[in-house]
Structures are given as C-alpha cells and as structure tokens.
C-alpha cells in the first residue's frame, strides 16, 4: 500500500499499475491531466513522466505494481497494448468490482513469506490476475496530451526567444512536465516540424527582425 504524493515526478522503464483503495487524486502525465478516485486503476506506459497528487491534500491510499513487458504474454499482453494505442502514455479503468480486486490484493501478504524467484513468480501471478480483472471492465479511457498543450509550448518558445533567453529542450520539458521524447514526438505530430527545427526557424526570424 502507498500513501504519498509524487511531487517530484517519476519515470520508469517498466509498466506501472496503480489501484486507488481510498481517496481521490490527480495525475499529470506527458501533457495530460487525469483525475481518479477510489476503485480506479491507472496504468502507465514505460518511459512516461508522471506526477501524482492527492485531491485537496487528503489521504490517498494506493497499491502500486511495476513489471516489464516480457513478463506478460498471450491475450493479456494484447490487451495491455490495446490500452496504449496512438501513443497514449496512460489509461484509466473504472467500474471494477472492488471485492474481486481486494480478494486478489489480499494475497500479497503471503508474498512477504517468500523469497527470490518464487516470490517474483507469485507477484507476477497476482499482476496477471489483476490484468484479467481489468480487461473485463467496459470503462477504459486512454489519454494523450492535448493540442492546447502543444500550442502553449510554441508560445513559450516564442516568448523566451524574443526575450533573447537561452532555451533548452530540458527546460521546456520540465516546464510542461513531459519527457523530452514525448514532447518531441507530439510537437512534430501537431506541427509537422521538429521542435529543434521550429526553434532554429524562430531564431532566424527574430535575427532578421533585428
């Protein structure tokens, strides 16, 4: 169980699943803002940069699971991939019978008595059960960044360059709370030009003005 706020942000090369057992919260992930509440599952794609906070600074109790793609196979892997279509970094699944979830999660206490490879296999079996339960829900929502965020990035670049301020990709990504990879991909998708080419073009235009 976890009761915390990821105020500094996190990024992992594994898939991550969060189950909220109590409370409400918000997730900022790769330019998307997502709300979740008790009984919801949040699934995060590898390499996505995210931050989780409790709503109104109240207690937020979650269970967190992290696993590599290689550990999941068959129909569950196909289902997992379907949640992240079109480059979505996150999916939220709602409306699941909490009794079924709690029944599976309650077996985690037994895992504490195990060690090594046996413990890992047992935990992955629990994760597979949770994915099977999640796949049965009809309320699955995938999230991507919005065009508005990309427009804000373009305005941010223009404003800083016009004030002759040095600007790096790291600074832009940090300002908008996205990973550099995701920022570059989404910027080019919406604007048809890479963010580096856009910045170079803006610099040239500003230089001509002067």
Please list the strands of the largest sheet in the order they lie side by side.
Answer: 7-2-5-8-9
Helix content: 40-55%
- The count of β-strands is 9
Radius of gyration, in angstroms, nearest whole number: 20 Å
Overview in brief:
The protein is an alpha+beta fold.
Structural commentary:
- The protein is α+β, with helices and mostly antiparallel strands.
- Helices cover 44% and strands 23% of the residues.
- It is built from 8 helices and 9 strands.
- The protein has helices at 74-83, 98-105, 108-111, 116-135, 147-162, 169-176, 180-191, 195-209; strands at residues 10-11, 15-22, 24-29, 32-37, 41-44, 49-54, 61-67, 90-94, 139-143.
- It has a 5-stranded antiparallel sheet with strand order 7-2-5-8-9, covered by helices on one side. Strands 1-6-3-4 form a 4-stranded antiparallel sheet, with no helix packed on it.
- α5 packs parallel to α8 (195-209).
- It is elongated, with a radius of gyration of 20 Å.
- Residues 1-7 have low confidence and may be disordered.
